[in-house]
Amino acid sequence: MNRLKSVLRLAFAFALVWGGVGVEDAQDASPVLSQQSILFDNLMPLGLSPDGNLIAAANRIELCTYQVPSMAQQMCVDLEPLDAGLRVGDVSWSPDSTRLVLTEDSFRILRDGDLWVVDALTGELTNLTDDGFNDNLSIGNPEKMAGTTFYFDVAPAWSPDSESITFSRTTFANGERAGNDIVTIPSAGGEPEVLLNVSPEAIGVAFFPMRWSTDGSVLYYVLTPVQRSDPSTGIYRFDAATGTSEQLLGFSPDFGAPAITEISPAGDKMLVFYPTAAVTLGAFDPIFWLFDLETLELEPLNPPGEAEDELGFVAAAAISPDGESLLIGTRRTTPNFQLWEVAIESGDATQLVESLSAVVSVEPTIGPSWTASGRIFVASDIHSGTLLEVPPRESPIVAEGPEPSASPPAVASAEFEAGDRAIVASNGVPLHAAPTGLSPAVGLLDAGVLLTVLGPAEEAEGAFWLPVQEMETRTIGFVRVELVIKG
Predict the structure, then answer these.
(1) Domain annotation covers residue 417
(2) At 427, which CATH number?
(3) Which one of 14, 72, 225, 409 has the largest count of C-beta atoms within 10 Å of its C-beta?
């Protein structure tokens, strides 16, 4: 085996020299280890689990999870018990990757809706806030509504330990509006506890999803009264220790009411989205902004200088697991759709993908997923997206979820022997010079390309790397074993 390693690495050295790949080229190489296009059959992609092992997708009647990267179906659950249908923008993963929280589209169709939790592996669906009422709202009809008290529960946020869920509760008593509270309930079920009242009479004031800081000390929530220019419109910070709130960011005359997309792991930055601006301004002005939670300074997100043109804009954004970078997807740039990593402090930009079929935010509060394991998912439209893999990033809080059950195993490294054939399973698979994702890529392989296996796989960086030779060009390199199938 040692002799084989020496021969291979000598071959790689010649390939680097004679193939024209020098040190500067290696340093400038994209950090993307693999790229895979994913199509969901009539389902909307909702993002990766925090551990990167599953991805969720849904429509109003069904929610499914799939194993990553094989995309084998893990579970699908019928959402028929949700009387008001699924409110897609509220779906979110628990930090420990075991469950998803769901709410119903109560405010759109004016029908009672509850807060639900679904097991990501089994599909077990649990109603956490069943109030015993499942009818349409009939305000002003005292006979029909007499003696009833029910709730519209929306805008959920998981606690960092996955033990509780905080949400917005609008109350109706005898068919009359009875105000809006922010409430917390144990994620395993129990009695809701009111954290604060945001309106004694108005309904749906806290409408957009809220977020807890990663240490659980601060809850960030959004108020959007009927009159959007109301001075109370904006983003607030609730201190869990003192029970006090303060407004951090108000209504913008140019962009409208803000919404929260994401909080950085350190709790010092917030990714802000302006939903109204995205619709009314044709997205020619920035719709994503980075909000400094210490200085309260707001900075627009624009395409990197080398990508920007007259109509270019940022269509999707996320914060890296280590909190040091932004992932931004651009549109109307050159080429039209691109993916970039931009360092928050320096502004230095690294292009991850030069050209994508499209980049979108499926919902204002559901953007790209970037997990500490190095997996990234970016939606292309309401039924498809791109899955990338980059080197892992350390996260201040890494919640480890369970391994997917009933998983068809990836091709084991032991199944490959020298002389076997392997077939590349997806497009854009890098052929690396050494068994590490940090080594330069000596080629990119498309789905269906035939490879000759040169020896058993080597384990490095928590993965198995297979030494291969591309049959047509005779190029030698290493590929990750799960990105090929046995020929």
Answers:
(1) yes
(2) 2.30.30.40
(3) 225
Cα separation of 89 and 220, whole Å?
17
What would the two tokens of residue 40 be?
Answer: 């969901």
Residue 197 located in a structural domain: no
Structure tokens at 78: 């019928």
CA distances to 88, 93, 114, 148 from 133, in Å: 22, 27, 10, 8
Rg (CA), the chain: 25
The reply to whether 262 falls in a domain is: no
pLDDT confidence of residue 278: 75
**In the beta sheet, which residues pair with residue 385?**
38, 379
Rounded mean pLDDT for each run of 10 residues along the chain, 487 residues in total: 32 31 38 90 92 92 92 93 88 95 86 90 93 66 68 92 94 81 94 91 88 94 83 92 92 89 94 83 74 95 74 89 94 85 93 87 83 92 90 65 44 70 75 74 79 87 81 87 79
* Positive/negative CA dihedral, 450, 455, 456, 458: negative
**d(C-alpha 32, C-alpha 113), whole Å:** 42
Question: Contact 471/456 with Cβ under 8 angstroms?
Answer: no
Angstrom distance (rounded) from CA 275 to CA 257 = 7
Cβ atoms 183, 126 nearer than 8 A: no
The pLDDT of residue 414: 52
Q: Residue 454 sits in which domain range?
A: 2-29+409-486
CA 393 to chain centre: 15
Q: Which residues lie across from 353 on neighbouring strands?
A: 339
On the 0-12 / 13-18 / 19+ scale of CB atoms within 10 A, 82 is buried
Q: Residue 224 is which amino acid?
A: T
Q: Of 322, 330, 213, 297, which is closest to residue 262 (Cα–Cα)? A: 213
Q: What is the dihedral of CA 400, 190, 260, 353, to 10 degrees?
A: 30
Among 428, 418, 330, 349, smallest CA distance to 387 is for 428
Amino acid residing at 398:
V
Please state, in angstroms and rounded to a whole number, the distance separating the CA atoms of residues 135 and 447: 51
CA 460, 449, 40, 158: dihedral to nearest 10 degrees? 10
Handedness of CA 296, 302, 305, 306 (dihedral sign): positive
Cα–Cα distance measured from residue 458 to residue 213, given in angstroms and rounded to the nearest whole number: 40
pTM of the model: 0.74
Domain count, the chain: 1
pLDDT score at 389: 92
CA angle 26, 28, 34 (to 5 degrees): 80
